[in-house]
Amino acid sequence: MPDEESVIIQDERTKLTLLNWLFLFVASYFLLYCNVGQFLTAGLFEWIYTLIVPPFASLFGVDNLTRIQYTGSGDTPFYYYQVFLMICVAFVASFFMLFLMRKKRSVQLFEKIVFMLVRYYLIYQMIIYGLSKVFYLQFMYPNDILLERTLGDMSPMGLMWTFMGSSMGYTMFVGWLEFLGGLFLIFRRTMVFGSLMTFGVMLNVFMLNMCYDVPVKLLSLHMVFMSLYLLYPVAKEVGSFFFSRGEVIREKIPFFDYKEATNFMLIIKVGLLIVMMIRMVHGNYSRYQSRIQPHSFTNKHDVTDQKIIKDHIELDSIPDHKKWKTISSMSSKYLCIEYADKHKTWYEMEINEPNKYIDLKRSEETKFKRLYCTTDEFGIKVVTGIFYSDSISVTLLESKRDFLLRSRKFYWMQEYPFNK
Q1: Which of the pair, 353 or 287, is modelled with greater confidence?
Q2: Is residue 223 scored above 70 in pLDDT?
Q3: Cα 267 from chain centroid?
Q4: How far is CA 250 from its chain centroid?
Q5: Of 22, 79, 293, 320, which one has the greatest count of Cβ atoms within 10 A?
Q6: Phi and psi (nearest 5°) for 183?
């Protein structure tokens, strides 16, 4: 019979093998996940998933699964089956690697590669989302159409977007937290702090997405787990720092060892950061300028009169689906027309103020429709032109309604809470 010592040794070996397999499984999965979505290497692999995910989904009775592009949702059925596929691939691959990577050096090299990839994936995501909030682009200040809606008619996501967008200060504060979390992840000395900061920020984001049904649940959940993955090598150190009075002993983080090229790598990091910052800031600032730039339709306008001439004859009655009710714009790039049948249509817009015309088209269209606009001394606008085969003349008057959410000022001192 085996003695007690040999049993303990065997149990330790089994435990170590299971831990190695678990590490290889998690690392393999993150290696797959980091190369899809909005990341630098996504374009190299996304076409592969576009081809293989639908057949994979058909194995589970889901036929005709298609990848819908640019909906703003990261939680489509396609993405869930893509994640499930990556889990299956990582599960199988981890067993192969467990037997192939016999040498500790091979495992350590794989660990360093995945660790670096996860780290830079988080850096990229945190800086992108952070700057979009710092420049007040992800959430927008509620326009008149939104403010006129009743609270009960809002979706949970619409409610969250409204309360976040109604406070530029808080939105920018959250953006700076996300941006700094990504910034601290760049450098070794601040990487642990950056991981902790990213974990706290993204856990809050994930809970918002869950509780308000925002379809970015998959991405935010992965970013929470990725930040924990970066903390795993120093888990004992972090635990000792927070929960022990004893001396904290630093454990080695799986960085690539380049002592002889430290200055060179520092230059590479700073260079990449500068290039990434210039690219992101330039793009975000351009969008920010289009948002704040005033134009003829900056505020909501009510339609006071509309005429449609078809075949040289003015229509006595205009169908509700063609009858304009209001128009509004949240930037100089987009215009929303609300029709009498209560449906709204967003149009891409190009404004030419000197020549007094605007070009409109829906996102799926290729050609713009040109409408001319004149304004009299009383501020009354008249829009004329050919709009989807109809000759139209629309009279507009800027809405002057004030809203408490917009007019309420900030007060340091209040005798009673102003909770209305």
Answers
A1: 353
A2: yes
A3: 30
A4: 35
A5: 79
A6: -65, -45
